Amino acid sequence: MLDTYDNLLDSVVRWSHRKDIITMIPDFIMLAEYEMYNNAETQLMTREMETIEVLTTTEKLIDLPCNFEKMRSITLQSGGNSLTIKYQAPEELLRRSGSGRPEFYTIIGNQIEFNRVPDAYYDLSITFYKKPCALTKTNQTNSVLTGYPNIYLYGVLHQVFLWSEDTQESVKYALKFQDAIKGANKADKKARYGTAPTMRIEGATP
User: Fold this and answer.
1) pTM strictly above 0.90
2) Which of 5, 30, 33, 65 has its CA at 20 to 30 Å from residue 137's CA atom?
3) E strands of 58-121, at which residues?
4) CA distance 60 to 31
5) What does the pLDDT average to over 165-174?
């Protein structure tokens, strides 16, 4: 069963018919993990990756959460109300002098920047996509391998054949890897929002 790091290594050896690459597979796994979240076509974003971090701050700049991948929302508690701090691109952030309640934020490097210095301690709820911990000998599984083992298998095989300069097999598994990511994202969207309603049209069909 493809549910642990060790089992993934065994499966890659069997599928690639390459026992001689066993010591290199950890590198291929690392590269596949990077591609899951940084490829140019479709990045993996599922609800298993969603997390909420709550903090209190008076700073204009705060560090991004550990293993941050993509922001969903930032809300601020003020006077018993939950207010959304809206995102603006770095070059469009309406920076204000003095202090006050932050209204906008942007992301620069590894930090969140608010459009003004907070005038008090504010409780923030940051909802974001967090990358699961990488697979290693000591970290045998994560939510991606548990829920979508085909993503790991095809991603690692793509790296194996890319390294061995087998273009045909590399392209084949690159496509399977992308299809697996798209399938996971689509399944997540369906689970989150349900299926789209079907339109029924009465009368004769022309």
Assistant:
1) no
2) 65
3) 61-63, 68-78, 81-87, 99-100, 104-108, 111-114, 117-118
4) 35
5) 97
